[in-house]
Write a structure and sequence with these properties.
Blueprint lengths: L1 E5 L5 E6 L2 H4 L5 H15 L58 H18 L2 E4 L8 H11 L4 E4 L6 H7 L5 E4 L6 H6 L2 E5 H11 L1
Parallel strand pairs: 1-3, 3-6, 4-5, 4-6
Antiparallel strand pairs: 1-2
Helix pairs in contact: 2-3, 4-5
């Protein structure tokens, strides 16, 4: 599969061959859903916490005698049945992460890349370099028509480009090792540099 390579000024800079095993798959929503769910669950903090009856600040004194009152039997005011008492079986700090095989995660990334190719929203960039001027880069992005874009570079992102892109709304920049299904699907346009393509193909082979 051939795709044109462009520069930031919009001019053509040749073409590249994309591997069918990575960019030519028929995207499956069930695979993408499972990988995104694994990502988001792993990122969830899980620090929500409630107080149990042993942690609330009431006295532990028995509130009234056991028998003869005509009411229910109670020990202290910390019981879950009382207002401001402890919470029964409430949330405690835990990890929401679950396992997903490495092969499946790699397959999910291939399907995400293939989905962008099928939509016609994959752009191959010659190189992502800039002098650190946000205004100049913002104009180039505007001229190219990228509104919500993710730029994937090689093993390292160019410092000047990263600085220039930091304050541009709707533009994310990641090194090739940071490429993931959630970020790819979240943005309308996926931009991969030639160095990023080589790194991704080496990673997914």
């Amino acid at each position: 599969m051939k795709l044109d390579v462009i520069k930031l000024d919009g001019k053509k800079a040749g073409s590249v061959d994309l591997g069918e095993d990575i960019f030519g798959l028929d995207p499956r929503a069930d695979i993408l859903h499972r990988v995104v769910r694994w990502q988001r669950n792993k990122a969830q903090q899980g620090t929500h916490k409630v107080k149990t009856r042993s942690e609330t600040s009431y006295s532990t004194k028995k509130i009234y005698r056991q028998k003869g009152t005509g009411g229910a039997r109670h020990g202290d005011r910390n019981a879950p049945i009382f207002r401001k008492g402890g919470i029964y079986k409430g949330p405690t700090p835990r990890s929401h992460a679950h396992d997903l095989p490495k092969k499946f995660r790699k397959l999910g990334l291939c399907h995400a890349l293939s989905a962008k190719v099928k939509e016609g929203n994959l752009v191959v960039l010659d190189a992502a370099t800039a002098e650190g001027k946000t205004g100049a880069l913002a104009k180039q992005i505007r001229d190219l028509g990228w509104k919500r874009a993710l730029v994937i570079d090689g093993t390292e992102v160019n410092d000047g480009f990263a600085r220039a892109a930091a304050n541009i709304d709707g533009l994310d920049v990641l090194p090739s090792m940071g490429a993931n299904v959630y970020d790819i699907l979240k943005r309308d346009t996926l931009v991969i540099t030639k160095a990023g393509l080589e790194a991704l193909e080496a990673r997914l082979k």
